[in-house]
Every structure is written in structure tokens, then in C-alpha cells.
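Hi Prof. W.,

I finally got the Lipopolysaccharide/colanic/teichoic acid biosynthesis glycosyltransferase prediction working! I wasn't sure whether to trim anything, so I left the full sequence exactly as given:
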Amino acid sequence: MNNLSKYNLYYQYIVDLLAITISFWLAKAIKFSPILDGVNYNQQAYITLYFVMIVGYFALIIIMLHNDTLFSRSKIQELGECIKIVFLLLLVMLGFAFFTKTSIAYSRSFFILFVGFSVIFLFVFRNFLKSRFFFRYQLSHGRKLIIVGSLRLVKSALEKLKNTDDWRYTVSGLIVTDQNLKDSFIDNVKVIGSYEDYMEIIKSEAVDDVFLAADVIDRSVFRVASEICEEGKTVHVQVDDFNLMQNYHDIVNRIGECTVLTYLPIIPIPKRSAALKRLFDIVLGLCLLPALLILCVLSLIDSIFETHGRILVHLIRISRNGMNFRQYRFRTMRIDAQERIKAHKSPYTKFGLFLLWTHLDGMPMILNVLAGEMSFVGPKALKPVEYIHLSAKERTNLNVQAGVVGYWSCKYSDKELIHIERDYIESWNLGKDLLIILKMIGRYITFRSTRKYTKENQNEELHRIQRYVEFKQPLPYDHSLYHARHSFKESFYLFIKRTFDIVLSAIAIVILSPLLLVLMILVVLNDGGSPFYGHERIGKNGKRIKVYKFRSMRNDFEDLREVLTEEQLHEYQTEFKITDDPRITKIGGFLRRTSLDELPQLFNILGGSLSIVGPRPIVEKETKIYGDQIGKLLSVKPGLTGYWQAYARNNATYESGERQKMELYYVDHHSLGFDIKIIFHTFRSVAKEEGAK
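And this is what came out:
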């Protein structure tokens, strides 16, 4: 059995256990529900029967499921397999009840319900695993693979990879060595290099594995494989099946339908050990969340009284195999830190100094750990400039997630650290992680930490703060061109409107929370990545705001010029949106047509940056279209829906001038009655998908 088959079976075992467990306890709950039956029953007997069922399932795995072929079965065959395994489990449980003479303790109705639920859940879960889970896993978590070889061999390998169910890898690029095809596409995969620059490409690209497509294995192939291994990348060398010998099965692997020899720059942490490490990170991270929440509250209080602004900053760091991510930390400096430094004053807040002194400024990295971007123990998360200057041996150790702490935080020379970290990876166990964590806690408590807060660290945080300050600067425009009306009637209207915004958005968030959760899951399953998308828009009086939506575009969309036609590019430049946008996912298209992608803006409404009804929030480029009328447009708060969205939506464009007229008409005629009318018409437009694109 090859590695892929083993992984498929492991996942099948997990979903099977989940399905029969849910079925068992659901059948028991329904049978003995106070509403349906309510009779007394022997709780211990059913607990015993459950463990017998689990042991029976593992016995069946050993006897008959160890060579199961999940992907080769049709849905009818899968249903037959589900019925077979449930029937055998039923025989195991009935046999146990018969031989232990405890049949009287169990209900026949329970067994009937269990059989029905088990067949349904097994069939649904297994088909979900085959049709959705593995595909989504490949898109979001599959190891990034570059194929290197001649044009013929690259095409052949790419076809073999794409025509199989190998979900472990996603082809991120091609390097053609016998022709210069750079920036062209082969079967929708971009050619990113040629023979002249293949090593530079492999060094600079965020890639996990390199696939060498070769006819024969000779010294030149071994030389190339060796060079790539020295850069810390895993290399797979394709070999012909008839050249293989049984004695070499330990080094032979299969990727799709291609047989390869795999060379590892370092012995990786085994999959089961990696799963245990990940489970440890999640459990410890969840346990520390309350402490993080307390620190967030204290930091927020300090921010209110000492210096307003965000309590967290994010820094760009490099983790496993050159992947960059946003590392979160508490902000320790004041918003006016630049001015205070020039005045020879301390740029730090009082709470910030406390966080630095206690090393608690890094507590938000728990969020990175829970997101899978870091681990509690691992190599150091490097700055991009540090990663570029790493030696080949140092890069080799970066094939695991970066750690919050690690051997790097102890007193070791660079040369010692390479060998120590390699030994940590090749002989990992949970005890090592616990020992390092306890050792670092001891160092922090006794003030023997080797951490140095350098000028570089200070400048990095200052840069993030400056970016935030720039974002908070309102849009510059001539306020004298328009003067908003001020009257008791207008003030009363704004008070009532804000009250309705708070009440209705809060109620909607509570009522729609199940729908929001379902949509979040659907977006994540569609192509991985964050389910939300925050975009900078211009709010009331030119204030810059972040407007949130469900992400409707592919997580990996290319440059606009590569995926759009000339007509679509022109439409984007004039209307700031595109008809039949190729970047939109299937679920994204549905969300846009039904306007469900805008539901996260309920949180914007609750926070006060948006209103339920108002002009459409626009980007900075769109403000130029309004010319001298921009002051009028920005005199009111933008809305989730509005006169243009409800009555015309995409049918009235900037190019025709109709959109500007409708938005400005609302500014001149806004009232409580007009707002209510717009809300009701919005539901009608959404239901009919009027003007939807």
C-alpha cells in the first residue's frame, strides 16, 4: 500500500467512527426520549455496548478493511459497502448481547434506529470525504509542488497528476528546461521558469516540493536533486515502473499515477506525530485564550485612557518552507510615538512597557497557533530580510511551522542551533515540546531570557503604527463646496436612524447567526482561506472605513491583466466591477446574486461605520467621479442598502451618470419614510435578483 492509500484509509476510519458514534447515541436519545418513550434503561449497558461496537469496528478493519479502496467505488457500490459494514457491526453487538446473556437490557427499536442512521451517516460522510473534503484540503492545505523537466515530460507528469485523486499536492508552477515558455500556461498552470533560472525560482518561490520529471536517472538528475535538497526542499524524482525493484520499496513513493524516488533534505516529523503536535497546540491555545482575553481588555482600557488606536499590530514573518504570514502582537507604543521620539520622550505606553518586561506582548501569537500558522515550539519566525540571508543548512530546518518559543530562544551559537533543531525535528516527541516550554517559562520568571528588543524591532512596530495613522487620516476634499443641513428635525431623524441601526443589526446578527456560520463554512470549503474580506472604503465626512463582506473571489486569483479580457478591464476601470468576473467562485456567484455576501456589514452597522440605508460605500478612486458633488455625497453615512441598490443596482452605471444622480437624490431627500420604503424595495429586488451581476 502506498502512502496515499494509507492516508485515505486513515481519514475513512475517522469519518466512519464519527458516523457510527453519532448514529449510536442519536438512536439511543430518540428511543429513550421522554417525549417518545421515557422508560427507564440501563445506562451502563449502553456504554458497554458502545465500546464493544468500537472494538468490533477496529477488528473489522484488521480482518477486511485494511486494503479498502475508497476512491474506486461508485455511489451504488459505496452504499453497498456501508450496508455491509453496518450489518457486520450489528452482528458484533447482537453476538455480544447473546453470549453475555444481556439481550434483555437492549431495545430492538434502538438497533433498528442505529442501523438506519448508520447507513445514512456512513454514506453521506464517506461521499463528502471523497467529493468535497479532499478537494478543499488540496486547495487550502495541499503541499505546493513545482514540476521541472522537458516540455514533453512536464505535460505528461501534469496530466498524470491532474487525472488522479491525489489530494496531497497542488501544482503551483512549472519549469520547462528545453524551451523558453516563461509566463505562458500549460493546462491552466503557469510556467514560472526555464533551465537558465530554475534554481533562483526554486529558492525564491514559496514551495514545499519539487517534482523532477525525467526519462532516466543519471548523474545530472542526482546533481540537480542534490542542489535542490540543499535549499531545504523535498525532491521527488520520477522513475519508470519497470525499473523498480522490491528491495527499494522504502524509498519509492507515488504521486498520482507517477512513481517517484523521494529525497528528503531532513527526516520530517511523521504524520501521526505531526497530528499529535497540532492537537497539543490547539488544546494549549484554547486553554490560554481566557488569559489572552484578559490582556486584550486591559490593553483596550489602556488604549482608551492613554493613547487611542488598535491594540494589536501584525508583522510579516516567514514560516514553513518560506510561507509568509501575519504574526500578531500587542501594540506597545503610543500612536504619536514618532513625535515623542523626536522630542526625546518615551514612545511606549505604560502597559506596553509592562508587556515588554513580562514578555506578554507576544501573547496574541496564540491566534497564529490556533490558525495553524505557527506552533508553540519550533524554529524562529523570521523577517523576510533574515530569511533571504539564511544559509542552505539553516533553510533546511524550516520545514516545520515556526514556534512561539524554541531552541533559538536559548543561548546557542548559530552552528549549534542548526544541529540541535535538526535533531529536534528528526526525533520529535511531545516531551521535548513540554520541556522547552517549561524551560522558557523558568527563564522568563527568573529574568534570564535572551530576548533582545532591538532598534529594528522598534522601527518595525513604528512602521505598522504609521500605516494605521495614515489609514485613519480622512479623505482630503473641499468641505466648503457643500454644507449639510442642521435642524432639530434632522437631528431627531439621525437619532432615530442610529437607534434603529443598533437595534435591528443586533437582532439580525442573533437571528441570522446560524446562516452566517453556514455561509462561513461554505466559503472556506469552496477554496480555503479566510471567509471574510475587508476592503477600504470612504465613509461619512471622508473617514476611511473597513467594510466587511463574505469573500466571493478565488483565494489565489492572478493579476487582472492575466485573467480579464480587454472589455472586462475597461468595465473595471469605469464601473469598478466586472460582468462575468472569472475570479468569482461558484458559492461567490450565488452570494453576490442574492446579496448575502454583504451580511457581515451588519457588524459595520452595529459599530457605527455604516447605516442600514445610505449611499453605497465607495473606494477613493470613485470619489473623483463625483467632482464638486463629493462633499454632498459624503455628508451622510453610507449604507448596507440604498436608493441606487434597491431601485437600479447594476442597471444604473457611472458611465451613464444615472448612479451619481440616484445617490445624490437620496442625500437631498433622505427621511425616515424614504428609508423604510427603500428597505422593503430591497427585499423585492434581492428576491427577483434585479440588476444582479
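The longest helix spans residues 271-305. Does that look reasonable to you?

Thanks,
D.
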